[in-house]
Amino acid sequence: MTTPTKPKLLHKIIRERPLVCDGAMGTQLMLSGLEQGSCGEAWNLSHPDRVLAIQRRYVEAGADCLITNTFGGSRLMLRRHGYEPQLAEINRAGARIAREAFGGRRGFVLGDIGPLGAILEPYGDLTVADAQAALEEQAGVLVAAGVDALIIETQTSLEELGIAIDAAKAVNAPCIIASLAYDLSVDGTFYKTMMGVSPEQAAELAEERGAHIIALNCGTGMDMKGAAMVARLYRDHCSLPIMVQPNAGLPVLENLKAVYKQLPADTARAVPEVLAAGAGIIGSCCGSTPEHTREIRRMVDATMAKK
User: DSSP string covering 134-191, please?
Assistant: First the structure.
């Protein structure tokens, strides 16, 4: 009797071939009827069909990886909307819907853990113990629900990032992705998070703390060319595989709202540069749509075909 071969872990696979991740979820939910300021994660229970439809469109556009609709799925974030008692159900449903969206095809479900939305002591009221407990609780539900990785995203401080990585390790996450949100400097020459963290610092901490993939997403001025710049810094300061999720270009202000107008083909134009910088997963963030994912897929495939 032969022993079944265990499937390769995500961070092992992307050392062999690049994968494409999905795009924005929040704006897609609002286009599907979510009111601004409402709890999008609760739609995993109240409108699972709409969440599924969004994620299926990303799969049809060529996404290999789907991020669960659980960005604000920690107890601290759900408490603000009155959904804390449904935390386990919301996160389990998020993992289940993403898996269903692949329709039986091979794909990777990334359990999404966003910022806690509070400031750690001594600058704020959130204790390290409470932060650890909240992150570990959500991480545990997602891992038990069968996600292929946890993505700790839109992080801006090394302190919360480190606690989140520790929480993911405590629940034996199969793969831990540490993703930070960087803002472009006024002179356009460098990126740092709003808490002053540089890509070099983030790369070193993520590797030391035990993350499996170092990533970036979102941030003011973070487009695909900016993602290539940060990816090169990551590559030079750690040995971890790299994931990028830049925005669909730079936003413009319309009616006091940030609007992203970059066309999908323009977003994807710098994909070869990102691949050359060492990115193993390429997705997109604010302002992106399944059409952006489709163009990123096309450009990834075209670039790899030339090698």
Answer: HHHHHHHHHHHTT-SEEEEEEE--HHHHHHHHHHHHHTT-S-EEEEE--EE-TTSS-E
Task: For 180-231, write each residue's pLDDT tens digit.
Answer: 999 999 999 999 999 999 999 999 999 999 999 999 999 999 999 999 999 9
Distance CA 282, CA 141 (A): 26
DSSP string, 73-125: -SHHHHHTTT-GGGHHHHHHHHHHHHHHHTTTS--EEEEEE---SSPBTTTSS
Q: Do β-strands 149-155 and 176-180 pair in parallel, antiparallel, or remain unpaired?
A: parallel
Task: Choose among 13, 69, 22: nearest CA to 41.
Answer: 69
Q: Confirm whether 269 is domain-assigned.
A: yes
Supply the range of the domain harboring residue 117. 14-305
pLDDT in tens, 108-165: 999 999 999 998 998 899 999 999 999 999 999 999 999 999 999 999 999 999 999 9
- CATH number, domain of 83, equals 3.20.20.330
How many of the other CB atoms lie within 10 Å of CB of 14?
Answer: 23
User: Domain for residue 241, yes or no?
Assistant: yes
DSSP string, 20-73: EB---SHHHHHHTTPPTTS-GGGHHHH-HHHHHHHHHHHHHTT-SEEE-S-TT-
d(CA 267, CA 261): 10
Number of domains in the chain: 1
- Would you give the DSSP letter of residue 245? E
- Count Cα atoms within 13 angstroms, Cβ side, for 184: 19
Q: List the beta bridge partners of residue 151.
A: 112, 177
How far lies 50's CA from each of 23, 32, 84, 249, in Å?
Answer: 16, 7, 22, 26
Residue 9, domain member (yes or no): no
With a threshold of 0.90, does the pTM exceed it? yes
**Max Cα-Cα span within the chain:** 66
How many Å from the N-terminal Cα to the C-terminal Cα in the chain? 39
